[in-house]
């Protein structure tokens, strides 16, 4: 593969980005990003490429354009303008020259890179019988940088672990976009899998339904995130179907999945509760009241499926825990992190 940009050797994230992200960018883009100051690389969350628009980076809470000399600028006029060739070469590098081999990923609208990083795609949808078969004429790419944050879920452990049953309380993590719900969920899975010796909690078997490849981020069948030694992953599998499959095939003590909300998810969750398997999942919402406005989530709440509700925000950075409630709406703990 072509030359890799040089970053400070002490910057482990920078080296990861070299090997797992930057090598998939067109050479012109890679050269510009290689000029970015080392201190800002650690804040990098997204790299957005849009045809004929300036190169855009999300660094923490802020968006910046990147000029041809690697300087962060606020004016879009000063930013390096991404060309069709930049996007085409980037897609070719990601797909290793064989776009057709990734048709299913194009249909889903994203690709997974080594290290668990994801590339979102936008372009012209090709329909077949009213459903999207694939995408072509790609005009936008969004590189989302994956970060494991060991210990992110530690403040939750006393409230979601069921020590008496050596399992977990059925837990729903509620979070607006970019508030750390997937990171927290991934870390909870890791704790369950390894066990928590300091709390005298043994490791337990966890089945993960990773419909959008965000939790384990499997690449060529291998999880790119460390979820521990007691985890079985169903990658790219619809949540409702995957929960039933894991229940029948892998005898999990906990089933974890991300972003519930469809009617079939509600039905599958109901079946899980009746089997004694712990449930760990997430939903997009900014507050508890917002959940009530979504019919299928309201149905889950009214059935009393979940024993713990965890609300996250970005108030003090991603993963800020605003509160934890039980199934009766009683507050268990508030602002226990961030």
Number of strands: 17
Helix content: 25-40%
As a whole number of angstroms, the C-alpha radius of gyration is 21 Å
Instruction: Give the count of structural domains.
Output: 2
What is the rounded distance between the termini?
A: 41 Å
Average pLDDT works out at: 89
Number of helices: 11
What is the name of the CATH superfamily of the largest domain? P-loop containing nucleotide triphosphate hydrolases
> Uncertain segments of ≥5 residues (pLDDT<50)?
1-10
Shape: globular
Determine and state the CATH class of the largest domain.
Alpha Beta
| Assigned CATH architecture of the largest domain | 3-Layer(aba) Sandwich
Structural class: alpha/beta
Topology (SSEs and partners):
Elements: H1 12-20, H2 27-33, H3 38-41, E1 44-50, E2 56-59, E3 62-66, E4 72-73, H4 84-94, H5 103-108, E5 110-112, E6 118-128, E7 131-144, H6 157-160, E8 161-162, E9 167-168, E10 171-175, H7 181-194, E11 206-210, E12 231-235, H8 239-249, E13 254-257, H9 263-273, E14 278-284, H10 288-292, H11 295-302, E15 308-313, E16 320-326, E17 331-333
Parallel strand pairs: 10-14, 10-15, 11-12, 11-13, 13-14
Antiparallel strand pairs: 1-2, 1-7, 2-3, 3-4, 5-6, 6-7, 8-9, 15-16, 16-17
Helix pairs in contact: 8-9, 9-11
């Amino acid at each position: 593969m072509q030359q890799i940009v040089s970053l400070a050797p002490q910057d482990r994230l920078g080296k990861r980005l070299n090997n797992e992200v930057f090598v998939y960018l067109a050479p012109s883009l890679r050269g510009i990003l290689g000029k970015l100051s080392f201190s800002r690389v650690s804040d990098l969350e997204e790299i957005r490429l849009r045809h004929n628009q300036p190169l855009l980076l999300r660094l923490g809470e802020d968006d910046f354009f990147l000029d041809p000399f690697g300087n962060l600028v606020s004016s879009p006029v000063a930013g390096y303008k991404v060309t069709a060739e930049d996007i085409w070469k980037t897609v070719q590098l990601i797909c290793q020259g064989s776009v057709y081999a990734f048709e299913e990923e194009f249909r889903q609208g994203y690709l997974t890179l080594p290290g668990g990083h994801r590339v979102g795609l936008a372009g012209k949808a090709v329909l077949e019988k009213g459903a999207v078969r694939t995408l072509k004429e790609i005009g936008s790419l969004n590189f989302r940088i994956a970060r494991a944050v060991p210990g992110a879920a530690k403040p939750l452990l006393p409230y979601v672990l069921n020590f008496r049953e050596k399992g977990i309380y059925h837990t729903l993590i509620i979070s607006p976009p970019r508030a750390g719900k997937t990171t927290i969920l991934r870390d909870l899975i890791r704790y369950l899998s390894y066990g928590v010796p300091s709390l005298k909690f043994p490791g337990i078997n966890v089945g993960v339904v990773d419909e959008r490849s965000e939790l384990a981020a499997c690449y060529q069948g291998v999880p790119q995130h460390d979820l521990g030694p007691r985890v079985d992953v169903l990658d790219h599998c619809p949540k409702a179907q995957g929960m039933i499959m894991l229940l029948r095939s892998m005898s999990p003590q906990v089933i974890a999945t991300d972003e519930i909300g469809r009617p079939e998810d509600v039905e599958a969750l109901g079946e899980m509760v009746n089997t004694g398997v712990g449930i760990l999942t997430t939903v997009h919402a900014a507050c508890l009241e917002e959940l009530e406005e979504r019919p299928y989530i309201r149905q889950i709440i009214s059935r009393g499926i979940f024993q713990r509700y965890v609300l996250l925000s970005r108030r003090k950075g991603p993963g800020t825990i605003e509160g934890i409630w039980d199934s009766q709406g009683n507050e268990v703990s508030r602002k226990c992190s961030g």
